[in-house]
Amino acid sequence: MPDSSLFRLSVSRCFGGTVAVYHHTSRECRCDMRFSIYLPPQAEREPVPVLYYLSGLTCTEENFTTKAGAQRYAAEYGLALVAPDTSPRGEGVPDDPNAWDFGMGAGFYVDATIAPWDRHYRTYSYVVTELPELVAAHFPIRGDRAGICGHSMGGHGALVCGLRHRDRYRSISALAPIAAPMQCPWGEKAFTGYLGDDRTAWQAYDATALVATHADPSRILLVDVGTADPFLAQGQLLPEVFAAACQAAGQPLTLRRQSDYDHGYYFVATFIGDHIRHHAAVLHG
Amino acid sequence: MPDSSLFRLSVSRCFGGTVAVYHHTSRECRCDMRFSIYLPPQAEREPVPVLYYLSGLTCTEENFTTKAGAQRYAAEYGLALVAPDTSPRGEGVPDDPNAWDFGMGAGFYVDATIAPWDRHYRTYSYVVTELPELVAAHFPIRGDRAGICGHSMGGHGALVCGLRHRDRYRSISALAPIAAPMQCPWGEKAFTGYLGDDRTAWQAYDATALVATHADPSRILLVDVGTADPFLAQGQLLPEVFAAACQAAGQPLTLRRQSDYDHGYYFVATFIGDHIRHHAAVLHG
Predict the structure, then answer these.
(1) Which pTM does this prediction carry?
(2) Which of A63, A21, A234 is nearest to A154 (CA)?
(3) Which residues of A are less than 8 Å from B15 in CB distance?
(4) Which helix (H) or strand (E) element contains residue A18?
(5) Among A13, A66, A261, whose Cβ lies nearest the Cβ of B260?
(6) What letter does residue B73 receive in the DSSP assignment?
(7) Residues near B37 by beta carbon (within 8 Å), at least 6 away in sequence
(8) What sign for the dihedral angle of Cα A239, A240, A246, A252?
(9) How far out from the chain centre does Cα A56 lie?
């Protein structure tokens, strides 16, 4: 029986609900992991649906929680928000101190199979299994009403987790996702490091590859990307490649190109309300 | 003729407008100063009213800009937002490295008269004169339609600047302000250091003292404070002392005690929408 104790680091009133940060010993990542959770006012009366939010490169649980302004919409629509850290951290957890796009802060939501990463870098299983179990055990959440959203590397994670687990996530969206990681420099570097050289092993973590076999016509994906996003120009995001794969597979996708927006949190803050509405419509449906 | 050149450090699209950070050589503070400005979509067509926001202890121009979620409301109501740094900074600017409530990050919006602070710590004149001139010269702002708001130390600043300059600020509000600084430890320390031991010199920077001579029945002040604010319990904020002074002077005040909210940016984010509506009703009136 794994230890499922939670320790609260902070709690504040926010839009009539509460935003809190917890840490716990993760069985998957074999280290202390943090996540933030926002419980809307509705959660004081009854269990509420939950939206998981996965952050991007270099982020922790803090970026989305303090900068996206999402609590306002979560309070309006009666959703809980859960935002985990993006990688294992701490003493004994390997890192590449010269890279910001690999190692700590850059777990890419995979279960690594290559040493030394394989012992701790298991953020895929952490997100899809351990974290939902923990949240369901401790908070007034409807575990059967969950959606998943993310930004950049976390948008990749949200698409992958959501496509692979239609039973666990009823709704999926992404902001500026790395949508075809097998075909971009960030993804190739991360997958080589965490998963090795055999590209067939990468397909389980590539939304563009997955959608061919995991399309679900009953769920419309929502994806936003800014036209002034420098990583779009650099070919790291490849939303058009993902869109073509969705079309070929019969996966409904609403892809919106937002004029002049860049990759940062002002972009996220501007459109997170639309994403929360997208999820709420499904999760309260 | 002072140099009024502005240099842009960043710009991003945000809620249909733009958020940018500038730096410039300040004639008042005799150093490089930064401020952020949000221009709502309406500013692309015509000049818009402006709300100045003064931040609290330890803050820079960044805290409010990234964490308050205010741009959403500014876009809705057609107001520009301007948020300056809280003190002079840089080489040659004196500091008390052992204090977070005095020196850099803690200018208290006064014009210091005591050496060595008097040469650079002139954030009062910076806020009420230099910054509005600069903003009017460079941006599509209606300089005759300005309001002022602030948080904590910046709430003190907003009340003081607003009360002393009814011609420059048509509307005033504050979140968890240090509302009677002459009567609290933070204020006594700051005023002694910046202004000296003669308490009569302090009165020009104490909202509770000022309201006796600067009440304006035509302006309703809006002040929010959280009941779980630890600095309220420590007697640093003293909203009840300010409220009594307002009542005695005939200054209309809406003082709201927000149950269970603390002093942080989740409190600011929750209520900044009400404050922006308060200012917009006056500034568009």
Answers:
(1) 0.96
(2) A63
(3) 269-270
(4) strand A17-26
(5) A13
(6) H
(7) B19, B20, B22, B80, B81, B82, B83, B135, B139
(8) positive
(9) 8
Interface contact B40, partner A, CB < 8 A: no
Q: What is the CB neighbour count within 10 angstroms for residue B219?
A: 19
Angstrom distance (rounded) from CA A226 to CA A257:
6
Burial label, B147 (beta-carbon count in 10 A; 0-12, 13-18, 19+): buried
The set of residues, in sequence order, having a beta carbon less than 8 Å from that of B60 and lying 6+ positions away, is B34, B85, B86, B105
What spatial distance separates the first Cα and last Cα of chain B, rounded to whole Å?
35
All residues of chain A having their beta carbon less than 8 Å from the beta carbon of residue B259 are 13
Question: What's the pLDDT score for residue A3?
Answer: 60
Q: How far is the C-alpha of A137 from the C-alpha of A82, rounded, in Å?
A: 14
| Å between A13 CA and nearest CA of chain B | 5
d(C-alpha B262, C-alpha B231), whole Å: 9
**Closest of B128, B234, B243, B229 to residue B179, by C-alpha:** B243
Q: How far is CA B250 from the centre of its chain?
A: 23
Is B281's Cβ below 8 Å from some Cβ in A?
no
Q: Of all helices (H) and strands (E), which one includes residue A223? A: strand A221-226
- Residue where the block lists tokens 């003729």: B1
Q: In sequence order, what are the residues at sequence separation of 6 or more whose Cβ sits closer than 8 angstroms to the Cβ of residue A233?
A: none
Query: Residues A156-214: pLDDT tens digits?
Result: 999 999 999 999 999 999 999 999 999 999 999 999 999 999 999 999 999 999 999 99
Distance CA A231, CA A182 (A): 15
Catalytic residues of A, by residue number, are 152, 229, 263
Sheet bearing B221-226, strands edge to edge:
B7-14, B17-26, B31-39, B80-84, B48-54, B141-151, B171-175, B221-226, B253-258
> For B62, which residue in chain A has the nearest alpha carbon?
A67
What are B167-215's pLDDT values in tens digits? 999 999 999 999 999 999 999 999 999 999 999 999 999 999 999 999 9
Q: Does B228 touch chain A (CB under 8 A)?
A: yes
Query: Torsion angle, CA of B41/B45/B46/B51, rounded to 10 degrees?
Result: 0
User: Measured between beta carbons, which residues in chain B are less than 8 angstroms from residue A262?
Assistant: 12-13
Mean of all residue pLDDT scores within chain A: 97
Structure tokens at A232: 């779009």
Residue B257 forms contact with A (CB below 8 Å): no
What does the block give as tokens for B116?
A: 């060595």
User: Quick one: DSSP state of residue B29?
Assistant: T
Q: End-to-end alpha-carbon separation of chain A, Å?
A: 35
Give the phi and the psi of residue B157 in degrees, each rounded to 5: -60, -40
